[in-house]
Amino acid sequence: MLRGACGRFAYILVRNGGPVLSNEEFRAVFDASPDGMLIVGEDGRILAANRQCRALFGYEPAELEGQEIELLVPEAEREAHTRHRGQYVRHPHPRPMGVGLNLQGRRKDGTTFPAEISLSPLRTDGGLRVICAVRDVTLQKRLQSFSEAALRATEEERQRIARELHDDTAQRLARGLRPPELEDAGLSAALLAHFRNVEEGTGFRVQAHLEPVDGYLDLTEKLALYRIVQEALSNARRHAGIEEAKVRVFREDGYVVAEVRDDGRGFVSVGLAGDGRGLGLVGMHERAAMIGAGLSVDSHPGEGTVVRVAIPIEGDDEG
Ligand SMILES: Nc1ncnc2c1ncn2[C@@H]1O[C@H](COP(=O)(O)OP(=O)(O)OP(=O)(O)O)[C@@H](O)[C@H]1O
Ligand SMILES: [Mg+2]
Questions:
Q1: Are residues 99 and 224 in the same domain?
Q2: Which protein residues have their CB within 5 A of the ion that is ligand 2?
Q3: From the CB of 278, is ligand 1 less than 6 Å away?
Q4: How is residue 19 annotated by DSSP?
Q5: Coil, strand or helix: which one is 152?
Q6: CA distance readout (Å), 30 to 19, 24, 27, 142, 276
Q7: Statement: residue 148 has pLDDT above 90
Q8: pLDDT tens digit string along 45-83?
Q9: Is the pTM of this model over 0.85?
Q10: Does the Cβ of 227 fall within 6 Å of ligand 1?
């Protein structure tokens, strides 16, 4: 049990009616605390300060005793502190450290430091005492902002990696999706390889008439043409209700033209983007637009469908 007593060290531990700690021992315990310890009276005067207060505040414990506690509070906050102290004395309650108050201590030289302060009220014969433990949390605050910065950096790094990975993955995917023949053997070879695949896989026949046009197109244009033919052919196979389509690639009036024709059931095309059921027609238009080519989908129910893409080529004076 802790009981109020008289003198500078107003508290003496007693057990079974007799003191457990002498004043000397109490002082030793008081000074051994790693926190700055202050015992404050209800008038706000410091009754006792332990040795740690020297390191914390730059004052000798003896200098502090008898001073108002506001001496250790930054000037700007003194008034508010005095007010709060008055309220506290009327309703004293224990307040632990780390309750999220952003408290500051003031050193003898006027500098300040972030502090955590616990308060323990104690009723004594001589009136209310408040035991304050003060801890300098500069390091913790620094660590906290450091780890916040580290977290932010990690997050930014993660996003950067995700972006790079994404681009890289997309590029690799794009590379993987590009038919290898396109670059090496040329457009005709790539298309013929595709037609063969379709025929072998589905039995759908492709009549191909392919002029050599590689010299007129760059790789992007070739890839766009290849994809458009691929989709048009897939549509013919899946939707036209017939077993065969014709593909022609040729040069005409300053264009390289690719045409996919079927004599199937045809459809009523609604605007540029087809009938909105699929993405194929939309994709064809987008690919054509990307390379500045014209695309037409000419279809009539019962008469079949012609998909035609015309890529303008420069320096074609053939007519
Ligand atoms: N050659 C064709 N013959 C008959 N109907 C066609 C032909 N091409 C397209 N269509 C009709 O136009 C619709 C839209 O075609 P689109 O390619 O945009 O979508 P999809 O083929 O249905 O789906 P996705 O291409 O996204 O797999 C088709 O669903 C089909 O009804
Ligand atoms: Mg389609």
A1: no
A2: 235, 278, 280
A3: yes
A4: E
A5: helix
A6: 16, 10, 5, 28, 82
A7: no
A8: 999 999 999 999 999 999 999 999 999 999 999 999 999
A9: no
A10: no
Structural domain ending residue among the three candidates 121, 136, 151: 136
Check if the beta carbon of residue 63 is closer than 8 Å to that of residue 93.
no
Helices (H), the chain: 23-32, 52-57, 61-64, 75-90, 138-177, 180-184, 187-202, 219-239, 280-290
- The last residue of one of the domains, among 109, 136, 163, is 136
* Residues counted in the chain: 319
Q: What is the pLDDT of residues 12-41, one digit of tens each?
A: 455 556 667 888 998 999 999 999 999 999
Please give the structure tokens belonging to residue 209. Answer: 């008439």
Cβ atoms of 183 and 218 closer than 8 Å: no
Q: Is 260 in the pocket of ligand 1 (CB under 6 A)?
A: no
pLDDT at position 226 is 94
Residue 144 domain-assigned (yes or no): no
